[in-house]
Structure formats: C-alpha cells, structure tokens
Amino acid sequence: MSKVLVIFGATGQQGGSLVDYVLNDPTLSKEFKVRAVTRDVSKPAAQALSKKGVEVVAGDVDDHESLAKVMHGAHTIFGVTVTVYDERTKEREVSQGRAMGDAAVAAGAQYFIFSTLSNAGEISGGKYATVEHFDGKAEVEAYIRTLPIKSAFFAPGSFMQNFTNMMMTPQPMGDGTYAIANVVTPQTQLPLIEITADTGKYVGAILAEPDKYEGKVFAAATKLYSFEEIVEAMSKATGKTVKYNQLPESVMRGFLPPAAAEDLIQMFYWFQDYGYYGPQSKELIEWAAQNARGKLTTLEEYLVKNPLVLQ
What we know:
Number of strands: 13
Order of helices and strands: EHHEHEHEHEHHEEHEEEHEEHEHHHH
Structural class: alpha/beta
Helix content: 40-55%
Radius of gyration: 20 Å
Strand order of the largest sheet: 3-2-1-4-5-6-11
Shape: globular
Largest sheet: 7 strands, parallel
C-alpha cells in the first residue's frame, strides 16, 4: 500500500514542483500517494491536479484545526509557510510552521520535510535582526528538530522567476539600455534556483533516501551568481544592454512596499556581508547540487525558456 505524502502549497511553485516530480518519477510514484493541500480546491490549478489523479484537499496553514484532517493517515509531510510582509511576518510564519509540525506528530506521520531558510539575525550576531521571513522559517526548523519525528529541510535560494515576473525585472533607462538595481555591490552573490523545475529534484532526493538525509539541509540553488554575472547573462539572452545599478539605500526604499522595505533592505545587506546561507554558502550549495536528483537549471537556460520582455 502506497504511503500518503501530504504536500502543502501544492498549487504553488514549491509544492507544485514536488507534485509533478513525484508523479513522474517511476519509483516515487509507486511508493507514495500524493495528497495535495490547497486553500481553494475549486481553482483551476487544483482542478488540474485532480485530473492527474491527485487527491486534492482543502487546508489552510492559518487554520490549525484543518491540519489534523489533511494529515490524517499521512506518512510524510512537505510543509511550506506563507510569507506576508506586515507587522506579523515572523509571528505568522512561526505559528504556521509550529502548527504543521505539531499536527504531523499528532497524526502519527513518520517524516517532515520543511521549507526553511537560514537565520540572518543569529549568524550576523544581531546585525541584521529584522530579516523576518528568513528568521521565522529558521525558528520553525529549530522547533521541528525538537519534535519526535524524523525531519529534513529544503532551503531554496533566490528564485530565477523574480527576474521575469517581479520587481527585479530589468527596467528601461531611457537611452536604449536596461538595468536592475539594488543597494548592494555588483559583486554580491545570489544563489539562484528555478523553483518550479528544480524543487522536486532536491525534495525527491530526500523522499528516495530519507534515512540518508535525516537532519540535513539542502541549500537549494544551481550555483551562486553575482549581480554582474546576472546582468551579463541577461544581456546575452536578450541582445540588449542590461546593467547593474547600485542605489543609495534611501532611493531603494522608495521602490519597495513600505511594509517590506526594512526586511528586504536588511536581507540584501545580509547577502552582501555574510552570504545567503552564511559564510559557508558556496560549500553548502555545492553539496546540495551534488545530492539532487537530476540536472539543475542554469540561469542561462532559464532565460532561454522564459525570455525577458524588455519594453
């Protein structure tokens, strides 16, 4: 009888990637029965999962009572929290993550895989203490490690999708060139991951060999790219000149949503001064890439499949 694999955020980027990976893997598809958790089972993405034969159930990480129902009979859980930038960013994510961990234990699940991040406040010695969407996940990870359930952790890097569908898309400079901008130096590095194509390759490795990876953290990124390297790749992909502009902090803040500005500004300084995963970022990323199942997507490959639309 197949083990029940509960995947939260199944219609999102991370959960959706894992659903597809398990369904298409000849071994994991036989070992696990996927139960996809989503807030709205009527939306098209949820209906598409149902048509693939996936059990789709309604659940909300903010509704703690719903967790017991969706985890009933589960063997393994993949859990993600929801980041909303406001006065409760960290508090909300910690509450969601702890509730999922507690519900997994109560349901008798055997294994919990949590989407985590590094603790910027702790690693920086308190210098960057307001990177709440990082620190909240790290606090949940620490809590899960205390629970009577086996666990492993997926720590995704910066999404390549941010360059094609968010504020990091190159902007026209008025002279025929384009630019992306930030407060940090051009040499600052981001660990980039194609989140929809590659999440399953990392989490799938844990599912395939859970004992081998118990307690491990997958620093999930193809490799580190500096902003200089990122704009070079964009220029080659588009045939247009894309530059990197380092902005004064006061100017950068004006481009950010007020509720998110402090968190995001400190986050980028954290990347610059300590590294996305801390001082050992390069080694951690290389280990995770070596242990992933399948070839990882480069930024250059991503930009070919998802061309930048430069206006």
